[in-house]
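Let us practice reading a record.
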Amino acid sequence: MLKLTLGEVIAIGILESLEIVWAVYVFSGKQINKRDYFLAALFSLIAAVMVRFMPVLLGINVIINIFILILVSVKLIKLPVSKAVPCVLITFVLKVVCETITFFTLSKLLKVDLSAIFRNEGMIFIYGLPSIILFASIVWVVSIGMRRR
């Protein structure tokens, strides 16, 4: 079970849920329906929080969240399964790449003590922002490229 504070849910969870659902929309090429977008983000957030409280090994929570987002993409965003699966997988791979880049930059290049960051809720948000911004920037560039096609 992973520790999760209310501040992390509000500060990071909401942002990440909104950007992950947005990425699925972008990668699928589907026009955003505001109602479905916010419902999908809300459901993804609630599901992610519930999964974090499950007594599963680290990494299994990501797999469960992938399956949940595929289900959300099919039921709420109304994507066919054949489109939802690759869009969700691309989204999660991109998220992992962005977080790895941020982790590497903080730990190796900037020599930041990551264990100290993980003990402080406010610091988790501040040091997590570069990953969120990098992910959103890449998805934004992809969305511009897809609109031009």
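A brief commentary: Residues 6-148 form one domain.
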